[in-house]
């Protein structure tokens, strides 16, 4: 039941009923017998377009209301729902009128076909005005359902609505790929052509010579003083003597 009450299902049903109602107006709704200029009787088939032109117009209105129901806003149902109801009621009333008074419904078509206005006309309605009541009544039912359950339909995303998940941070934009981002950076006083140089961990690069070394440094003051003096061989010989 929920699948039948979705937006798509009701819209498709309204479109089908509107097209069916419009297609039925091409059939013969009345058959009239009238005299021409010569006085000879001739049979004239009157289609639904001529017998009840309001039916075709209301079918087109119902189709337009069905298409408008597909809009993203759920408040549209307060307009399209009543339009579908009124279109169905109007089409049903017009079909019943043709069935009840076939002569009045055929007068215009007979006068155009024979060229005689105000002549005697005998007309009989076919089964098609009664068949047209089915899609007309279903349009009324669909309009009521649109008003009743349209508030529970999920809101559709507009095709022009921005998706936050697809937005890219300004810092991630390459000026060559997005000229607008480059102009924004210039307006903030930044140079988009400058590229920060990062070290291995993302910090600014440092000079390796400035880092402290773990190797021990020899201090001359820490070396032991060698007090041993080496005398020339000649002096040692004199002392021995």
Description:
This protein has 241 residues and is mostly helical. The protein has helices spanning 7-24, 48-51, 53-68, 77-100, 102-114, 128-131, 133-149, 179-187, 233-240, and strands at 28-35, 41-47, 121-125. The protein has a 3-stranded antiparallel β-sheet with strand order 2-1-3. Helix 1 packs antiparallel against helix 3 (53-68), helix 1 runs antiparallel to helix 7 and helix 4 (77-100) crosses helix 5 (102-114). 25% of the residues are buried.
Strand content: 5-15%
* Strand line-up of the largest beta sheet: 2-1-3
**Portion in helices:** 40-55%
Low-confidence stretches: 167-171, 199-206, 224-232, 234-241
Q: How many helices in DSSP terms? A: 9
| Radius of gyration over C-alpha positions, nearest whole angstrom | 48 Å
What is the overall pLDDT average? 76
The strand count comes to 3
Estimated structural class: mainly alpha
Largest sheet: 3 strands, antiparallel
N-end to C-end Cα span: 134 Å
Oligomeric state of the chains in view: single chain
The string of secondary-structure elements, in order, is HEEHHHHEHHHH
Sequence-ordered SSE layout with sheet pairings:
Layout: H1 7-24, E1 28-35, E2 41-47, H2 48-51, H3 53-68, H4 77-100, H5 102-114, E3 121-125, H6 128-131, H7 133-149, H8 179-187, H9 233-240
Antiparallel strand pairs: 1-2, 1-3
Helix pairs in contact: 1-3, 1-7, 3-4, 4-5, 4-7
What descriptive keywords fit this protein?
single chain; disordered C terminus; 8% strand; three-stranded antiparallel beta sheet; 9 helices; elongated; 241 residues
């Amino acid at each position: 039941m929920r699948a039948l009450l979705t937006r798509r299902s009701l819209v498709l049903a309204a479109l089908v009923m509107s097209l069916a109602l419009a297609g039925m107006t091409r059939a013969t709704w009345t058959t009239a017998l009238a005299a021409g200029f010569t006085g000879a009787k001739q049979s004239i088939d009157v289609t639904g377009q001529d017998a009840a032109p309001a039916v075709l117009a209301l079918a087109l209105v119902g189709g337009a209301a069905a298409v408008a129901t597909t809009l993203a806003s759920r408040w549209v149902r307060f307009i399209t729902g009543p339009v579908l109801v009124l279109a169905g009621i109007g089409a049903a009333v017009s079909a019943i009128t043709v069935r009840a008074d076939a002569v009045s419904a055929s007068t215009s078509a007979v006068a155009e076909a024979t060229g005689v206005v105000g002549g005697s006309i005998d007309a009989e309605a076919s089964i098609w005005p009664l068949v047209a009541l089915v899609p007309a009544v279903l349009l009324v039912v669909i309009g009521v359902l649109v008003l009743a359950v349209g508030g529970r339909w999920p809101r559709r995303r507009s095709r022009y609505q921005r998706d936050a998940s697809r937005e890219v941070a300004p810092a991630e934009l390459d000026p060559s790929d997005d000229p607008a981002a480059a102009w924004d950076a210039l307006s903030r006083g930044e140079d988009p052509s400058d590229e920060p140089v990062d070290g291995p961990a993302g910090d600014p690069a440092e000079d390796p010579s400035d880092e402290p070394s773990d190797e021990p440094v020899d201090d001359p003051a820490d070396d032991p003083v060698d007090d041993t003096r080496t005398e020339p061989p000649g002096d040692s010989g004199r002392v021995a003597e």
